Amino acid sequence: MRKPQTGPLQGIRILDLTRLLPGPLGTMLMADMGAEVIKIEDPNAPDYVRVFPPFVGGESVNYLAYNRSKKSMLLDYKSEEGKNIFLDLVKTADVVIEQFRPNYLEKWGIDYPKARLVNPNIIYVSVTGYGQTGPYAHLAGHDLNYISYAGVLGITGEKDSAPIIPGVQLADIAGGSYMSVIATLAALHARTQTGVGQHVDVSMTDAVMPLLSVSYGIYAATNQAPQRGTLPLSGGMPNYGIYECKDKKYVALGTLEPKFWGKFCDLTHKPDWKMFMLPQNDEQLQSFKNLIGSLFLEQNQNEWVSFGLQHDLLISPVYGLEDLENDPHLQARKMIIETEHTKAGKLKSIGVPLKFSETEAHPAWAAPTLGEDTEDILRELGY
To answer: In whole angstroms, what is the distance from residue 184 CA to residue 123 CA?
Structure first.
């Protein structure tokens, strides 16, 4: 039976009951790091993402994007036989990760209390929108709802305009995927200290709130809620922003510290602009932004990027997705990779973000087809 051969998490077995984006991306990150992840799907209701277009070779691109390096098992855990097979699997596992509403798995007899009876060392990670407790615990939701409740959506956007939906799923990924990895690794470490497993409650709403650490800190200290587009790192400083170039492309100017901004002003022959770092009011802020914007309109994006690289000026291109695979740094870091899928053929995807000097992590194989490993897993259990 196939198993990942590299990565720091080799020897850890994870039973993955998650669907859609948050849990599956988190378990894929751990699978890429060497964990043996068994993705378990109900044959009557597999992961919904499998039917999301577009499709390549009959497989959903969305499914392929965050389910590589895993095994796939079809198991009707709602049946008595399926429940028993699942609990037999729990005996062999280190971690279970699930993404259902609170208490849903209790009625099928595969919740944490039941899993703990057969394996006291099991770590059971529950990823939900609002957590296992509280007034909203049983509510349905999606990324937009979670960042709405968390306050993240409310401070995202331009001044005096409506909130803007972020270009990526912040609660799903930062609050769900990443936090499920952190939760798993923290609980695994605790188990080495205590000898027992535990249940970990991951609320995507709770888990996305640390993104507010800076802005909420300002609010807590001043009792004044910052307006959208006015925080120092989200529109409140003219020397830290996005500017259009002559060719209609954009650059990000990150000259936050006085030494970088001062150097930028000197090299562009604008020494009097050094005082732009501290606009006194909204009118002055906009005036300063307009002047800087006029300067960037004088040259194309690649010219400004070259100028920034030459002088270490924190000027970077605002890339489109089509630009990523051509960037030399991202190429060197292997952040766009290619895998071979039995049905979909060659696929490009995001690489492994963590680099380990002694236990290299990289994808083991492309996303499995539905139920591809079921027989091997059952055979291993003695069925």
So the answer is: 7
